[in-house]
Amino acid sequence: MGKARIVGIGMDYSATSKAALKWVIDNLKKEDDRIIIIHVASPKADPTNKQLFENTGSPLIPLDEFREINVSKHYGLNPDKEVLNMLDTVSKVKNVTVVAKVYWGDAREKLCDAVEHLKLDTLVVGSRGLGVLKR
Length: 135
Prior knowledge:
InterPro entries: Rossmann-like_a/b/a_fold (IPR014729), UspA (IPR006016). This is UspA domain-containing protein. Residues 5-135 form the UspA domain. Pfam families: Usp. The chain has 135 residues and is α/β, with parallel strands linked by helices. It has a single domain (6-125), classed as HUPs (Rossmann fold, 3-Layer(aba) Sandwich), CATH 3.40.50.620. The protein contains 6 helices and 5 strands; from the N terminus they run βαβαβαααβαβ. The chain has helices at 15-27, 50-53, 63-66, 69-74, 81-93, 107-117; strands at 6-10, 34-41, 61-62, 97-104, 122-124. Strand 1 (6-10), helix 1 (15-27) and strand 2 form a beta-alpha-beta unit.
């Protein structure tokens, strides 16, 4: 076995971000990998502790804590049960560590920041759903 990888997944609970998560679970998993679910909330959102973490993003939130409704609401999020179930399954069945991190601001910039700050080996995001002509 090689070095465990750190895989980031941009998550906004859209169908394409769920597909990206499923793709990671099915294709990129190695024993002891770490999955970081990266949420980028609107800069206009004003959760309780946004001021503490606005520039650096939230601390890493373990999956067990992230499942708790009070914790996710504390960061201004409303997690999707389907996503949480997929994360629970990969965590338990495939021995993968799952954590979440929340940023506030422009998703393009914050996802690039996440790659640098979290030392991600891979970042997976869903498509925007635009066809060839609209792109």
